[in-house]
Q: What sequence folds into this?
């Protein structure tokens, strides 16, 4: 598989795990599963999930970075990661939490982010 495509796939996987690490505990709390857990247990659980994220994020950045022979500049990697992060967050939050709906300003913000990716990749 080409490094450009593998980099994007790894960034998507990484952001799924990071979104779960950051916000999954809120779903567990809302479901009554972790309501009585001490904060340090919730933090350790989140760190464990985030560790999986790092096993995808770090290789994606190393493989994708042009300084290591990859196709992307550092700025391109960062902007792609941010857009992927917001898309993954939006999809997972809409699936995991009731009452999360996209409004016109959210859609416009996403379109502006896509435009930022376009601008970053312009020569």
A:
């Amino acid at each position: 598989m080409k490094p450009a495509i593998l980099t994007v796939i790894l960034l998507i996987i990484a952001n799924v795990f990071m979104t779960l690490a950051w916000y999954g505990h809120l779903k567990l709390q809302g479901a009554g599963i972790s309501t009585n857990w001490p904060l340090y247990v919730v933090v350790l659980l989140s760190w464990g999930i985030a560790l999986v994220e790092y096993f995808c994020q770090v290789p994606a950045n190393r493989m994708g970075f042009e300084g290591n022979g990859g196709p992307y500049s550092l700025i391109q990697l960062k902007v792609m990661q941010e857009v992927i992060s917001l898309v993954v967050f939006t999809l997972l939050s809409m699936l995991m939490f009731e009452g999360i709906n996209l409004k016109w300003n959210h859609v416009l913000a996403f379109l502006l982010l896509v435009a930022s990716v376009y601008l970053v990749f312009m020569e």
